[in-house]
């Protein structure tokens, strides 16, 4: 495969960092130009400063990240870390010492040069001139106040007409722009303006009027339209009359020009004096940023140079660790120069290729073993026989799904090793099987045994076969056990045997029964009339017993015959609830007490033989009646419902009673022939019922409840109606 570099540096690439450094250099040059121009300084200095600080922060982060990585590598004693540290320290010293010296002398020279640009005496003279100008304006304004008082005192007639006629003359003599006289309540008594079209006087602010009425005359310099400076006065009457006069006087054009020039000159000087400190700060900050920029750039260059120098060593160390971790595809880029280090890298690449080839061969072998194991697991998973394997310490190593199903084990989430002892402890009913396996494990030879397990109220028969099994470790041996659940096979064989016995009994016994019955009836007919009273009673009783027993034997023979023969079913679609209701109505009419009926599948059809299914219902109701003989509050419950058995909808028929129930030891044998709990029963009733249900593709089960027994019959729903009822919500999962 193509060689690939294994650089230990994982920061930004060289090109982005170089572009960042170049960009910062350009921004520093722009900052220098901004410092030289005060107008540009006020607009561009702060944005440029922000850009530089952000760039230096990025460089600082890069430097810190590289330093942290270097310290971590140094503490781990990684290859090349010591050399990298020495190079970085050397570059730092080389860059910091000369740059620091230049920074120190340049900063001192710059600050002293800026201070020499300004003379302290000039600043004081500018302030004195400004004070002098202000004093001159104050003197002129006081003079105008006196003139305004004299004008107001010269008004003799206070009528509005007299004041209006005299004000314009007074305005021209005083050189005022506007004169206005106010009464005691602030009403305008008269006004005169140099502009005849200006009929409304130029009112002063309300606060000025209130201050003047309170006894304080007002004088102030204001600007009009066109930036023209005027002096406004508002004075009281010196003669004590309740009048105020407002006068607006123009200022001298020369005085206005000089005042404006003086103010501009002072503002310019103040700006320059302010910029002196800003220039000092700006130049100092710029030099400091240049120093930081140089140091950061030197450190970045130091890390880059060190990385280029120690990259081959670091790559070899990293590739060696990767190979030790199982990654055999490592190939290092050869250095550009041809020396011993290049030879070392080439040798390492050749070694890694050989290791990769060996790894590939081992992987192929492991895949072949894994394929074989999956093949074996697939076969074991499809077997109906249970297969388990134990090691020498009796620990369970392998168990296929059939084994877990037969033994009813759940080992998916069990982290602890499973041993025979633990199986006995957690599943006591497996003790016969575990003891059999343990006994044959010690013999270390093939064996075969039949084991019967008793779990709850059911029994299970296993046919077991075992053989020694060699393990991957030659010094140890295991054992494999194969077993089948032959309970159903034994039941089928037993049923077949009983059917053959029933057939022969029916054949051998039925033939002589009729002659025996006829002979007994003939004897009674011939001898009864000829015998005396005592003999007649004896003959009557004896022949009656013979005939009664012959009828009982005929009934038993008929049961044998029904169990033994396999009549052809006359199957047809039928509504089971309707069939059951017809049978149950017979029992109701016969006066069967406490018969509770709940038929819950009125529309569900099954395919079956009506006569055989009637026989099933009759047998189950009759068995329940016989079980309740002598019981108080006897009660028989009959119900139907639709249930879902795996993927097949079934009609479920339930018959329950509140009698004594079945003996626990007989629960798993109730459907065998000649097994009964009744003194006069033949033991064929439930066997015949089971046979009929199985002929219809159904199943039957029995269980004891808290009070009484429950028999459950399930028959598949007819295919034609299965789709129609598939979505019914009354399905009850098993």
From TrEMBL:
Chief location bin: membrane
Localization in the cell: Membrane
Lineage: Bacteria, Pseudomonadati, Pseudomonadota, Gammaproteobacteria, Chromatiales
Protein name per UniProt: histidine kinase
Pfam families named among the record's database cross-references: HAMP, HATPase_c, HisKA
Entries under InterPro entries matching the protein: BphY/WalK/GraS-like (IPR050351), HAMP_dom (IPR003660), HATPase_C_sf (IPR036890), HATPase_dom (IPR003594), His_kinase_dom (IPR005467), HisK_dim/P_dom (IPR003661), HisK_dim/P_sf (IPR036097), NtrY (IPR017232)
E.C. number(s) listed in UniProt: 2.7.13.3
All copies of domain Histidine kinase, residue ranges: 504-719
Annotated coiled-coil segments of the chain: none
The entry's keywords: ATP-binding, Kinase, Membrane, Nucleotide-binding, Phosphoprotein, Transferase, Transmembrane, Transmembrane helix, Two-component regulatory system
Residue ranges crossing the lipid bilayer per the database entry: 12-32, 44-71, 83-105
Any single GO BP term: osmosensory signaling via phosphorelay pathway
A molecular function (GO) term: phosphorelay sensor kinase activity
Record domain HAMP: where: 307-360
PANTHER family: SENSOR HISTIDINE KINASE GLRK (PTHR42878:SF7), TWO-COMPONENT HISTIDINE KINASE (PTHR42878)
Chemical reaction(s) catalysed: ATP + protein L-histidine = ADP + protein N-phospho-L-histidine
Gene3D superfamilies linked: 1.10.287.130, 6.10.340.10, Histidine kinase-like ATPase, C-terminal domain, PAS domain
GO cellular component: membrane
């Amino acid at each position: 495969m193509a060689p690939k570099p294994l650089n230990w540096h994982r920061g930004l690439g060289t090109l982005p960092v170089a572009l960042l450094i170049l960009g910062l250099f350009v921004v520093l040059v722009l900052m220098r130009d901004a410092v030289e121009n005060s107008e540009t300084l006020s607009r561009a200095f702060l944005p440029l400063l922000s850009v530089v600080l952000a760039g230096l922060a990025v460089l600082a982060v890069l430097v810190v990240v590289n330093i942290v990585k270097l310290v971590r590598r140094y503490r781990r004693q990684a290859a090349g870390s010591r050399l990298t540290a020495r190079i970085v320290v050397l570059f730092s010293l080389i860059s910091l010492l000369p740059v620091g010296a230049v920074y120190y002398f340049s900063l001192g020279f710059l600050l002293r040069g800026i201070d020499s640009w300004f003379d302290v005496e000039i600043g004081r003279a500018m302030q004195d001139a400004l004070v002098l100008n202000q004093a001159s304006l104050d003197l002129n304004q006081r003079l105008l106040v006196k003139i305004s008082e004299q004008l107001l005192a010269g008004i003799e007639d206070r009528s509005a007409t007299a004041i209006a006629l005299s004000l314009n003359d007074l305005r021209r003599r005083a050189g005022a722009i506007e004169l206005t006289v106010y009464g005691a309540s602030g009403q305008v008594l008269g006004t005169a303006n140099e502009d005849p079209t200006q009929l409304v006087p130029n009112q002063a602010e309300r606060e000025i009027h209130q201050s003047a009425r309170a006894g304080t005359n007002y004088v102030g310099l204001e600007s009009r339209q066109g930036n023209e400076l005027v002096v406004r006065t508002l004075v009281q009457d010196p003669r004590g009359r309740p009048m105020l006069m407002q006068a607006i006087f123009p200022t001298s054009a020369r005085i206005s020009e000089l005042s404006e020039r003086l103010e501009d000159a002072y503002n310019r000087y103040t700006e320059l004096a302010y910029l002196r400190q800003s220039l000092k700060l700006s130049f100092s900050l710029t030099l400091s940023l240049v120093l930081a920029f140089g140091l950061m750039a030197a450190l970045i260059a130091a890390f880059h140079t060190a990385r280029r120098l120690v990259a081959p060593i670091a790559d070899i160390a990293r590739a060696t660790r990767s190979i030790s971790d199982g990654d055999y595809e490592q190939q290092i880029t050869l250095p550009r120069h041809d020396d011993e280090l290049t030879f070392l890298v080439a040798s390492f690449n050749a070694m890694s290729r050989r290791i990769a080839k060996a790894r590939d061969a081992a992987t192929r072998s492991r895949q072949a073993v894994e394929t074989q194991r999956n093949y074996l697991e697939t076969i074991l998973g499809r077997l109906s026989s249970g297969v388990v394997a134990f090691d020498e310490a009796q620990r369970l190593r392998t168990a296929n799904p059939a084994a877990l199903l037969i033994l009813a084990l759940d080992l998916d989430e069990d982290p602890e090793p499973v041993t025979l002892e633990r199986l006995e402890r957690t599943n006591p009913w497996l003790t016969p099987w575990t003891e059999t396996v343990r006994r044959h494990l010690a013999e270390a030879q093939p064996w075969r045994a039949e084991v019967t397990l008793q779990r709850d109220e059911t029994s299970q028969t296993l046919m077991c076969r075992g053989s020694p099994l060699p393990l991957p470790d030659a010094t140890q041996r295991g054992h494999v056990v194969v077993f089948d659940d032959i309970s159903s096979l034994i039941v089928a064989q037993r049923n077949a045997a009983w059917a053959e016995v029933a057939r022969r009994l029916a054949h051998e016994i039925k033939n002589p029964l009729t002659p025996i019955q006829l002979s007994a009836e003939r004897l009674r007919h011939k001898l009864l009339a000829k015998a005396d009273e005592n003999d007649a009673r004896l003959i009557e009783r004896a022949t009656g017993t013979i005939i009664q027993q012959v009828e009982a034997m005929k009934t038993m023979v008929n049961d044998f015959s029904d169990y033994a023969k396999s009549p052809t079913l006359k199957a047809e679609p039928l509504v089971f609830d309707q069939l059951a209701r017809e049978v149950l109505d017979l029992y109701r009419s016969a006066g069967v007490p406490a018969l509770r009926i709940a038929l819950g599948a009125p529309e569900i059809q099954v395919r079956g033989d009506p006569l055989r299914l009637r026989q099933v219902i009759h047998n189950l109701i009759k068995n329940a009646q016989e079980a309740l003989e002598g019981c108080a509050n006897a009660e028989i419950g009959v119900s139907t419902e639709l249930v879902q058995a795996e993927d097949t909808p079934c009609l479920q028929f339930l018959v329950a009673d509140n009698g004594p129930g079945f003996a626990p030891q007989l629960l798993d044998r109730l459907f065998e022939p000649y097994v009964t709990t009744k003194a006069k029963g033949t033991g064929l009733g439930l066997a015949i019922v089971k046979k009929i249900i199985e002929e219809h593709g159904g199943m039957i089960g029995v269980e004891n409840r808290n009070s009484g027994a429950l028999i459950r019959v399930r028959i598949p729903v007819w295919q034609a109606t299965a789709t129609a009822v598939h979505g019914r919500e009354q399905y009850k999962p098993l």
